[in-house]
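Minutes, project check-in
Item: structure for the 174-residue chain
Input as provided by the requester:
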Amino acid sequence: MTNESAEALASRVLEVLAGRGESVATAESLTGGLLSATLTDVPGASRSFVGGVVSYATRVKESLLGVPAEVVARHGVVSGECAAAMATGVRSALDATWGLATTGVAGPDSQEGKPVGTVWVAVAGPRGTEVRRLALSGDRRSIREGSCRDVLGLLAAVLDGDRAIPAREEPGLG
């Protein structure tokens, strides 16, 4: 999505959000809190970051984030539909301007018939939801880090008004 590091992207999006008086919340599955940690590593993050939900278990996605059981049954938790519902759900639950979501397979095993490195990220905001499918490679840590970088890059692109889909990704819902 971008050559910028997750840390640089976090700093940039938080600065833009603070300047606009907007906020962001996270809904994380495979990143397990790494996205929230990346955001809160930025000094002054509390001006825009309101919190996050680590929803590793499906029941947490459904109960805390409002992911419909039918979405899980029909599409699975490793899907664009689930990522979109997670982002929308955390935005609503934590009363944030923007909701970010990560869901996918970090490994070592496939999940729902999807290979390691299959990741969906989503950004929900005032004008709708953007979803992207990522095909990441590497070990578990690098897949989690790449997921954080790419969801922050997607938020940066949406904030900048650049809705182009980078070549290494496939369009999702949107």
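Outcome recorded: The beta strands are 24-28, 49-54, 98-104, 118-125, 128-135, 170-171.
No further action items on this chain.
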